[in-house]
Amino acid sequence: MPEKLHPYVVFLPTEKKDKILSAIFGSKASVDVLRFSLKQGISKTLYQKDLVESLNYSNKTIIGNLKALTSLGVLTEQMEKTEKKNRIIWVKTYQLTTLGRWFALLLAEESQLSENEKIEILESLFRTYVKLVKNLADELKINKKMLEKIFKEEMQ
Fold this sequence. Notes:
Elements: H1 17-25, H2 28-40, E1 46-47, H3 48-54, H4 59-71, E2 75-84, E3 87-96, H5 98-107, H6 115-140, H7 144-155
Antiparallel strand pairs: 1-3, 2-3
Helix pairs in contact: 2-5
């Protein structure tokens, strides 16, 4: 029986490739942040407090990794206003960027993803791939009609 393959694809910004790979895979804490985001749902907001409570790292380690992942474009950082004990406080929140989602998905088991997430991933992957192929076709001066013909043949 042929082995079932999981389609791992990551599009990396050329100029930051080494820094991003090193920041994520050079730190178990960064990998655990991505795994945590998978458990929450890749589109969900991450809260520093939840990461500190759930992961076995110090607040300082979590903050350092969040800053590194944010500066490399793996996460986005926002401030969220919330009320706690009749006081308004501001809380830092994080979300995976498109790049961050690709890295999180490298760690995912297919069973961890909902059908909607799988659909969203496929659509995003396809759109990104088509854009990259179009740009490469322009650069190589390839007739895009030929690529369109190939696409239509394969979609039959």
